[in-house]
Amino acid sequence: QVQLVESGGGSVQAGGSLRLSCAASGYTYTTYCMGWFRQAPGKEREGVAVIDSDGSTRYADSVKGRFTISKDNAKNTLYLQMNSLKPEDTAMYYCAAKSARWLQLFAPAYNYWGQGTQVTVSS
Q1: Separation CA 88–CA 16 (nearest Å)
Q2: pLDDT tens digits, 44-63
Q3: CB atoms within 10 A of CB 67
């Protein structure tokens, strides 16, 4: 099993920045891909950014150039630096991990999930 705990959410004004963190524990050596997903009220969960064990990344078009995903393997921690935030970025943000190799933004492909951290961006 892999446990994921997110932190760093909050409320900011449009144009501001936040950094999310996800601490992983348990059988972390079994995970190949990790990523950030978000879900706004009434909408489906969508992929934001993912990273694999080799450091390759993939981003949703809506966040390219504004968000950066990274990880610290020594600390077993995943990060999401979010800059130039927009009101449409408001959502619950989830950290996820999977054992399969393919770098996907497809939420159902991930089998480990955190509880989420709320991000609210006001205009």
Answers
A1: 13
A2: 999 999 999 889 999 999 99
A3: 21
